[in-house]
Amino acid sequence: MFSRTDERVIARWWWTVDKVLLGAVLALILGGLVLSLAASPPVADRLGLDSFHFVKRHAIFVVPAVALMIGVSLMDPRQIRRSALVVFIAGLCLMVLALQFGAEVKGARRWISIAGFVLQPSEFVKPAFVVLVAWAFSERIKRPDMPGNMLAVLMLAAFVGLLVPQPDFGQTMLAVLVWGALFFAAGMSWLWIIALGGLGVGGIAAAYAMVPHVRERIDRFLDPESGDTFQIDTAIESFVRGGWLGRGPGEGTVKQSLPDSHTDFIFAVTAEEFGIVVCLILVAAFAFVVLRGLAHALRERDPFLRLSVTGLIVLFGLQSAINMAVNLHLMPAKGMTLPFISYGGSSILSLAYGMGMVLGLTRRRPQTKPVLTELTGPVGVPAE
After folding, report:
1. What does the record list as coiled-coil region(s) (predicted)?
2. Is cis: bond before 224, omega within 30 of 0?
3. CA dist 10 to 15, 29, 82, 121, 381, Å?
4. pLDDT tens profile 188-217
């Protein structure tokens, strides 16, 4: 396709990007289109829309998402960091506007309409937040006098402080977990681990005591008789009905009554129509992306690159695991999409932005070799 001597930007990108990781992500995007075709028509029919309304919109979002992912992957680390700063600040401002002027949907104010496009700003803040926190921790590693830890805490407080009033406790938990993972990867002490763990448990207890919405979800998870568990029960039924090989494309019945079959519970629809085998293939695809990304992070010498890739991959992996765990009733409902599979314009675009940063940060670059100075002897012994 391109010669190795070709100096054009796209040619250099082609020979340095991880094409295996890129292919895995594109396969997930294509899989999302196929599964959207299976899961979304009943939802559109119930809303009085064209049967393929959500399929068409999903396809429309895929095109700019792929373009965005490739465009971001062309950037160098400095450009990626700068773009993250712009997206983070703009996203926080839009989150404030959403709280004030956004439409309320199911008791939450998370969306804002811009030029006819409904946007969820917090989705775009997530990957930018991860990169900036990674930068703060990496600067603390490089320069101990740099208040990197304090900057990271302030960014977490700003993000979470706008997520809680929405309310969006699923995204709050995700942001805190990824922040903690980055802090751990940056080399925090066990004392900090214990302290942060205690704060996390305290936060969950406080949310349970003070927020009825959170209390109801946890109670329904622990005691199904305490409230309405229709969606979870229906999702579990879909796994039983589908068996190992599924009932066949379009033959599922559970999606006819599952309200969020095209978003939060698309994994359950996949189980009924395509079977547990295809679900396991999906799990393997997500696991491959996570392990491939973490392998890149382990090889990076630069703290910023190492922490950024780690954080973005942990964000991707945790969101995937949480969605699938909710479908299997392994944790309380969180209202979180399955990356690249669930319908949602903001989700697909923000995930493309995040994976574009992963592809850009993991591109092969020349390694600088250590140079012996005149202060070092021929065998590495300090000269006298």
Report:
1. none
2. no
3. 9, 22, 21, 30, 45
4. 777 777 877 787 788 778 877 877 767 777
Alpha helices in the chain (DSSP H): 9-16, 19-39, 41-46, 53-73, 77-101, 121-142, 148-163, 169-185, 190-210, 212-222, 230-242, 266-299, 303-327, 345-361
Task: Give me Rg for the CA atoms of the chain.
Answer: 22
Close Cβ partners of 184 (under 8 Å, ≥ 6 residues apart): 193
Tokens of 207: 């949310």
Comparing CA positions, the residue from 201, 148, 208, 150 lying closest to residue 176 is 201
Inter-residue contact 167 to 211 (CB < 8 Å): yes
3-state SS, residue 82: helix
pTM for the full predicted model? 0.89
Phi and psi dihedrals of 265, rounded to 5?
Answer: -115, 30
Q: Burial level of 94, CB count in 10 A (0-12/13-18/19+)?
A: buried
